Amino acid sequence: MTTKVTTPSDLEIQLTRVFDAPRDLVWEAHTKAEHIKHWWGRGNPLDVELDFRVGGKYRYVEHADGEAYAFRGEFREISPPQRLVQTFEFEGMPGHILVETLVFTEEDGKTTITGTSLFDSVEDRDGMLQTGMAEGAEQSYQALQRYLKTLS
Amino acid sequence: MTTTGDPLSEVFAALADPTRRAILDRLAAGEATVNELAEPFPISLQAISKHLKVLERAGLITRGRDAQWRPCRLEAEPLREVAAWAEQYRRHWEGRYDQLDDYLQRLTKEKRHDHQSDDPKRP
């Protein structure tokens, strides 16, 4: 299953992905350290600390290529098993805070996660855009074609 | 969400609408007239024209000079920056979601296994 990307407004980026699992299970995988450490690190070892309640904080440290990358945030809204709102900040670039809203819907035993990240400002968004451009022209052309395919 | 008037924000605002994204998707396959673009949509030509104006202002399309046909053409350049970023973001999360997918399969199997061992009729 593929992950679709769109930009629903000038300060948001949205991903959609379908999982072949019931919603309660997909939700649960987002709420406990013992689950999150298995997937959030994209295959890299991950240290997870989280206090899963509204106002509670999390901190994930991903270990890749001998480096450690730390991310942190706070849970703002928890409505099981439908909606989760949290902040997201890379400790390497402190002060640039995204608000992530995850919506979980179930149909025929499959669960769709729609994740929307809202940027604080146009400057933050453009800063992220520049990291995207760092990939080089050739990759950027492929990216464009891929993006156009997923637009509608 | 309001735009702030900078060129990139115009591009984002133009991309925010599903009809406009579908128009761009169609133009990625080659230039087309307003009538051709309007065909798949249950909305008026006038509404399509409005969408085209937004896309034109954002620099995402240009229109031919022929007064009668004025075919629309996709302009890829302003999209390139947004696309590179969106694709990088997508790929980053796809890596994460592929792992989640595997993990969910594992959990599902384990749960099924647990149910089976709870059942006294099954060995």
Q: State the separation between the terminal residues of chain A, measured CA to CA.
A: 17 Å
CATH architecture of the largest domain in chain B: Orthogonal Bundle
Question: Percent range for helical residues of chain B?
Answer: 55-70%
Number of domains of chain B: 2
Question: Would you count the extended β strands of chain A for me?
Answer: 8
Strand content of chain A: 35-45%
Radius of gyration of chain A: 16 Å
Q: Please give the most extensive interface between any two protein chains, plus how many residues each contributes.
A: A-B, 52 and 46 residues
Low-confidence stretches of chain B at least 5 residues in length (pLDDT < 50)?
none
Instruction: Describe the main β-sheet of chain B briefly.
Output: 2 strands, antiparallel
How is the quaternary structure best described? heterodimer
The coarse overall form of chain B would be: elongated
Would you mind describing this structure in some detail?
The complex is a heterodimer of chains A (152) and B (123). Chain A has 4 helices and 8 strands, in the order ββααββββββαα. With 152 residues, chain A is α+β, with helices and mostly antiparallel strands. In chain A, strand 4 and strand 5 form a beta hairpin. The longest helix of chain A has 13 residues, at 137-149. Chain A is globular, with a radius of gyration of 16 Å. The mean pLDDT of chain B is 85. In chain B, strand 1 (61-63) and strand 2 (72-74) form a beta hairpin. Chain B has a two-stranded antiparallel sheet with strand order 1-2. Chain B has 2 domains: 7-75, Winged helix-like DNA-binding domain superfamily/Winged helix DNA-binding domain (Arc Repressor Mutant, subunit A, Orthogonal Bundle); 77-123. Chain B has helices at residues 7-15, 18-27, 34-38, 45-57, 77-118; strands spanning 61-63, 72-74. Chains A and B meet through strand 1, strand 2, helix 2, helix 3 and helix 4 of A and helix 1, helix 2 and helix 5 of B.
